[in-house]
Amino acid sequence: MxxxxxxxxxxxxGGALQPFEYELDEIGPEQVDIKVEYCGVCHSDMxxxxxxxxxxxxxxxxxxxxxxxxxxxxxxxxxxxxxDKVGLGWFSGSCMHCRPCMTGNHNMCVSAExxxxxxxxxxxxxxxxxxxxxxxxxxxxxxxxxxxxxCGGITVFNPIVTGGVKPLDxxxxxxxxGLGHLVLQFLAKWGCEVTAxxxxxxxxxxxxxxxxxxxxxxxxxxxxxxxxxxxxxxLNTTNVSLNWPLYLNALSAFGTFHTVGAVLEPIPVPAFSLxxxxxxxxxxxxxxxxxxxxxxSFCNRHDIFPITEEFALSDVNDAFEHLEAxxxxxxxxxxx
Length: 336
Fold this sequence. Notes:
Radius of gyration: 20 Å
Mean pLDDT: 96
Structural class: alpha/beta
Shape: globular
Number of domains: 2
Distance between the termini: 23 Å
């Protein structure tokens, strides 16, 4: 049985979003259909609309932070059932047989399916995915705020776990925005001493409310020099070029600089800045389904949610303008 989906799509590169309908074919044996209730708006949606990464196809229905109810399930679906509340992020499928999948790293699948790459996403009343990527939500979980956890949240939770960040570690966070305000909350509940770097002193009080122990003005070179050699781990959540030597110099011996911000320019890393302190530079994508489930449990246990602004799906173009103008505080959610 097919489903007629009502959505918002862009029909050409950089175009405005407009009402769009399409048909979902008969559901596959391992797929679920989700009736979308809320969907977050991410910078990645904007990048796909503009084809900034060169992999967009049109018409394109954005949206990869969808939350809703399972309304249909294939005959071989496991772990979720019709009626369950679930969340769906950037990935909507993985092959389940390659080495990454077989070792639990489905997010590294060599043929992973992305929710909005060559398929239609969550700016719609329905979206489809493989059951493994439909992440169950606890009873009473705040659906209106949950969506951004499935992209922004897992993007910054993943390096905490896979990067081996330990309680009592001294961790720096660059950028107090859509990603940064979430990772500050994660790290504070993880037990870390957290230093927030921001170029906006007006965000200092908010950073402390979110869990930062210290706040450093990243434009103050003297303040940056004062923390040289003090941090075990630095997480960059921004997508702009920075004064890289100052941040690398802030790392302690065996420290790691890790980026989840998609900086488009090459990051210059002098070899001796790594060799002398046995430091490393790394990056990561979103996390596996298992780790995403752990993140949801962690958020539920510690009442961690993004700060959001809500728009109706029909006002999606206004939401995009708000995001592009840099006015979002800190994540936008569409009510479907």
